[in-house]
Amino acid sequence: MQSADRPETRLATRLAFLIAGFGLACWAPLVPFAKARLGVDDGVLGILLLCLGLGSVAAMLATGMLSARYGSKPIIIAGGLGLALTLPILTIASTPFTLGITLAVFGASLGSLDVAMNIHAVEVEKGAGRPLMSGFHALFSIGGFIGSLLVTLLLSVHAGPLVATLLSSALMVLAMVVAWPRLLRTVPSEDAPLFAIPRSFVLLLAVLAAITFLVEGAILDWSALLLTTQGRVEASHGGLGYMLFAIAMTAGRLAGDTITAKLGDRAIMLWGGLVAVAGFVVLLLSPIAILAMSGFLLIGLGASNIVPVLFRKGGTQTVMPAGLAVAAITMCGYAGVLIGPASVGFVANHVGLPGSFWMLAILLCAAPLCAGIVTRPQGQEEANAHRSYRSVDT
């Protein structure tokens, strides 16, 4: 395998994260156009959007298997190009069936890219011998901002959805062309298991990822309603909460590698989790609107580097192959995003929306409570467990 500690490989990894965030964000402004073009109601639209999630989850499972055998490079290339090629088709699909199929392919491209780029990031970080994961994840957020901004601007000047997506796809293809020769080429492992059930340490990482992503998804979908129903802000300003959260999370990840190098993973998990939980307390108990809004900043800053730590530990643990572990963590995190809004709504029906946000705060307490377990040195028993996985080869 070529050296992972090179500026070229770090650039390729950053481009992969940028493409993933960019491609996903380009679709968001197109949803109203798709609904109007097909003339479907909200129920049918919800089913169509579910196709994207189902495609992503199926691809994540397959990517864990394939990356264990063939490496992450071909999957990153296929996923990135798949996003670029299917994005314009989303704007011309003329029936619910064709849009559903295209969304499933689009989701599969995103899901496979998501898992493969994290596996690649683990290898690059290992080669560099210093924290890099937070910076990589920050590029996903930056890509999302650029993608949504670009498509929104093009649509606002009446460029049309197809023209907007063709230009966006061209930029993604260009980025993939730059990244392609710089991605790591790993030696295929013929005896690597194609499937392994997560357990013990990896299962804990996956659960923590699901909780953290659940919090992020819930804030995205419910923060505006929380602020407006409590009379903190007017309806027109309801999006300020998530905006502050997203800005703080991106800033935290941009500075995360430097902070992690100085303080270590355990301190990031412990103090980051405590700051995020404190943000919920400030948000829910502050009588002053401006002070309550600062809670979103604390939540974003505190939670920003928890997921990068989880992926780092998933890639370096010895319980199971790194590719399968990263795939399991990614799948559980994505499941958290999918079930987050629904679970918050279910709890809100019984105890109110503030009560559901208290539930999120309680769940997030798992991060600081498990900081010592997640970051402790692994023992011989875990190495033995890894060897037992090699017999599960399909």
UniProtKB/TrEMBL annotation:
InterPro entries under this entry? MFS, MFS_dom, MFS_trans_sf, MFS_Transporter
Q: Which GO terms describe its molecular function?
A: transmembrane transporter activity
Q: Identify the SUPFAM superfamilies for this entry.
A: MFS general substrate transporter
Q: Which domain of life is it from?
A: Bacteria
Q: Where is the Major facilitator superfamily (MFS) profile domain?
A: 9-379
Keywords (alphabetical) are:
Membrane, Transmembrane, Transmembrane helix
Q: Where in the cell is it found?
A: Membrane
Record-level GO cellular component terms: membrane
Describe its membrane topology: Multi-pass membrane protein
Protein name, per record = Sugar phosphate permease
